[in-house]
Amino acid sequence: QVHLVESGGGLVQAGGSLRLSCTASGRTFGDYSMGWFRQAPGKEREFVAAISRSGGNTEYADSVKGRFTASRDNAKNTAYLQMNSLKPEDTAVYYCAGRNGPYYGVSDVYTGKGYYGYWGQGTQVTVSS
Questions:
Q1: Which helix (H) or strand (E) holds 122?
Q2: C-alpha span between 58 and 43 (Å, rounded)
């Protein structure tokens, strides 16, 4: 199985940027479709972004489209979430998640929490107004 560790969270002013990293160990990182989710206090964990095993396909929640970019470097066993134009409503704990099959469809991106079997511990992102 794969072990995932997020980093890069912190406190930033509205309009600022952060880049989250998710580093994997234990298995071949390129075998895993990856997702990013977030959970604000009192709210359910929600989908943010997903990226296919090859990195060729991505999908985003409407609330972050045009501001966030998911990417990965399989040689470095790391997935990234570049977050620009941050808003106070982006404040949450951000989690990366990994999925190692079965694979559905052509795009190899998954937006539902239930598709993922491996989760990191989360990293706090706080955006001040």
A1: none
A2: 24
From 7-16, 68-77, 95-104, the region with the lowest mean pLDDT: 95-104
DSSP single-letter state for residue 44:
-
- For residue 43, give Cα distances in angstroms to 7, 28, 46, 103: 22, 33, 8, 29
The predicted-structure confidence for 50-97, as pLDDT tens digits, reads as follows: 999 999 999 999 999 999 999 999 999 999 999 999 999 999 999 999
The single-letter DSSP state of residue 32 is -
Best CA proximity match to 3, nearest among 20, 23, 17, 18: 23
Q: Which of 93, 96, 84 is nearest to 4 (CA)?
A: 96
Residue 37 burial (10 A CB sphere; 0-12, 13-18, 19+) = buried
